[in-house]
Amino acid sequence: MNIDLEYDYPEALKRQGHTQTDVDAIRNLVSEYPHVPKCITDKQLLLFLDSCGGVEEGAKVCKLYYTLKQKNVEHFKLRDPSHPKIQQCLANQDYFYLPNTPTGDVVVFHRLSSSRASDYVFDEAIKTFFMTIDSALQKNGPHDGAIFLFDMKGVGLMHLTRVNVSSIRKFFQYLQEGIPGKLRAIHVFNVVYFFDKILTLIKPFMKAEILKNLHLHSSGIDLEKFYKEHVPKSSLPSDFGGDNPSIKELHEKHCKEFMRLRPYFLAEEKQANLLLDNCDKTSLDKELLIENERNLKNISID
User: Which residues contact 107 (CB under 8 A, 6 or more apart)?
Assistant: First the structure.
């Protein structure tokens, strides 16, 4: 089982201010959690160690990460880049990650390339987006935070009929609590006139701190101001005046990268679900219930 992430481990330890002793300490903690694979690697553990700035908090994120993967199978099973459903997503939507910002934040981009609502499969889109995040971590290693860029160009009212509340809840729980990294901000470009309806759907599942960092941008966005206040040109595609290739070129490159990483995705899925058949499903439900109750006070209900 090859789970050897590609990032430079000694460099990442030094860059993020950690030691092997810290990694050993988080390993000791997660070894007590039945849903965390025993074969988890030091490179994987460093991602979690760095996600919250400490051993104990990082171990909690690691625990929830694997609990969610084993529970939410619609988003974490069959993560084969060559699978027809993943290929259908890649054919009708754009996904890729961009160079990290100078402050160390990973930047992930997503938009529709086909405006037909019938081409949009919500759960598969979530799965592919999560895989894109993983591909960035696999390549670049730990980061200080994550910035997500969503372009609403081509989104219509019929797309709302393709989403479901349960998956929205799972999507935000994973982004806010499960990924090994702090969610810094979400930027939405080309905001549609019915975004208030979308906000009604997603707001109950967003923490107050994330809602404050949800930035909406119209088609007349002041790009120079955006570069200065949010994301620099060095971390944006040329479509937004950035220093990188176009969205089309970046997506095509990412599709090739996805296929190259196929052995990693297959091995990671096998590792993440290694204990699934033997896991107590009731225990998994209890873990998620406890976590949900713990986070209720952080959710905005205004």
Answer: 97, 98, 99, 100, 101, 146, 147, 148, 149, 231, 235, 236
Whole-angstrom distance, CA of residue 262 vs CA of residue 251:
16
Instruction: Provide the pairing of β-strand 93-98 with 105-112.
Output: antiparallel
Q: What is the mean pLDDT of residues 274-279?
A: 52
**Each residue of 283-295: pLDDT tens digit?**
444 544 444 444 4
CA dihedral 172, 175, 179, 182 (to 10 degrees): -130
Q: CA 186, CA 210: separation in Å to the nearest integer?
A: 8
Task: Give the sign of the dihedral formed by CA 216, CA 219, CA 220, CA 221.
Answer: positive
Q: Is residue 50's pLDDT more than 80? A: no
Q: What's the rounded Cα separation, in Å, for the pair 52 and 60?
A: 9
Task: Look up the pTM and report it.
Answer: 0.90
pLDDT (tens digit, 9 = 90+) per residue, 241-265? 999 999 999 999 999 999 999 999 9
CA dihedral 121, 127, 131, 134 (to 10 degrees): 140
Which residue carries 């209900």 as its tokens?
301
